[in-house]
Amino acid sequence: MTRELYIGLMSGTSMDSIDAVLVEFDDDACTIMQTHSDPWPDELLRRLRQCIEQADRVDIAEIGRLHHELGRAFADAALGLLGAAHVPPPAVTAIGSHGQTVLHAPDGRAPCSIQLGDPGTIAVETAITVVADFRNADIALGGQGAPLVPAFHRWAFGHEEEDRAIVNIGGIANVTILHADGRTTGYDTGPGNTLLNGWIARQQGRSFDAAGAWAATGRVNGALLGAMAADPYFSRPPPKSTGLELFNATWLDRHIASLPAAAPPEDVQATLSELTALQIANALCALPGLQQLAVCGGGAANHDLMSRLHLMLPHCRILTTTDWGIDPAWVEAVAFAWLARQRIHAQPSNLPSVTGAAASVSLGGVYLPPVRHR
Ligand SMILES: Nc1ncnc2c1ncn2[C@@H]1O[C@H](COP(=O)(O)OP(=O)(O)OP(=O)(O)O)[C@@H](O)[C@H]1O
Ligand SMILES: [Mg+2]
Q1: Residue 250 CB partners (closer than 8 Å, separation 6+)
Q2: 158 and 267 housed in the same domain
Q3: Which CATH number does the domain housing residue 197 bear?
Q4: How many domains does the chain have?
Q5: Which residue ranges have their beta carbon within 6 Å of ligand 1?
Q6: In whole angstroms, how far apart are CA 174 and each of 31, 73, 277, 279?
Q7: Per-residue pLDDT tens for 335-353?
Q8: How confident is the model at residue 138, as a pLDDT?
Q9: Residue 1: pLDDT band with limits 50, 70, 90
Q10: Ligand 1 pocket test: which of 19, 302, 330 has the largest number of ligand atoms within 8 Å of its C-beta?
């Protein structure tokens, strides 16, 4: 393969921003050329949250409108990125657009995962080929459709002499284990930042707990931790993936209501931080010889969460992916640029050992920019 430019567009379950990254790939390495972040407009964010939180009442026409409007917002982020980089659209081979997940339901008789942000609109607005809908082919093959980033982690961070682990702490946290023998395993461990964000928003009107400073003032409530950690998701064997359908305010309120005595709000925050760290540590305890764990995602900036991880994994060096060459804030967006590249070159991009799919395939639908006829 020759050198090529791709764009990765990502907005995760935290819905904190649209992340856009311009990446140059050659055969076995990638370089971030430019990054760009757009906040979600307040009104769009309100409607998105309503769509997710009141999924059983949402109007199909509203879903259509959101699909289009999010497509425009993703296209604007891509164009803002290219403007900042002074790179013209024809120089880019393709955009990998994850979309905004509004439903992730990979289990049951009619499994599906729905991301909004119309790729056709992005292709029209940018005049660049778009690869999108990365999850549903894996789901159709019996897989979870998630997590999808471990294949990229193997490509970018794999090392033949030692086991390595990566944890992405976004809205949901997911762990990848790159075994020295070449196997790759991993799964969603459970909540990352989503419950922490939701609780501080309700208690203090802030969108996140900067550096985990508020959580650090609280004490872990053993009863609450025990009740939350008993959720069957945590003991279910992989492959598994999850989302806001399970780990949401209703889930947290149910556990708080079951407590024998009220817990101060900062103790709830500390307990949520402990829960996130505990489930990540549990995913790694089967590897007592693990020496290096690299953290990425916004949770890497949460010092309270990081210090809990240090305490739970005393024999493991805890790094961020910066130490392995990629800024933790951009790993997910770079991964979707890589997934687009795999699709364009018809290379496999899911890992059955992670998702449980029956086959390894090239994921994503390809949307070519329209050819204009006079
Ligand atoms: N300085 C910080 N201190 C504490 N938490 C932070 C800080 N910066 C970011 N975060 C947390 O990280 C979150 C954003 O992380 P990220 O963008 O990786 O998640 P995401 O968009 O949900 O991605 P995904 O779920 O796909 O991994 C914020 O909502 C916030 O909770
Ligand atoms: Mg984000």
Answers
A1: none
A2: yes
A3: 3.30.420.40
A4: 2
A5: 12-14, 16, 168, 170-172, 193, 197, 208-212, 297-299, 301-302, 332
A6: 23, 26, 11, 10
A7: 999 999 999 999 999 999 9
A8: 98
A9: low
A10: 302
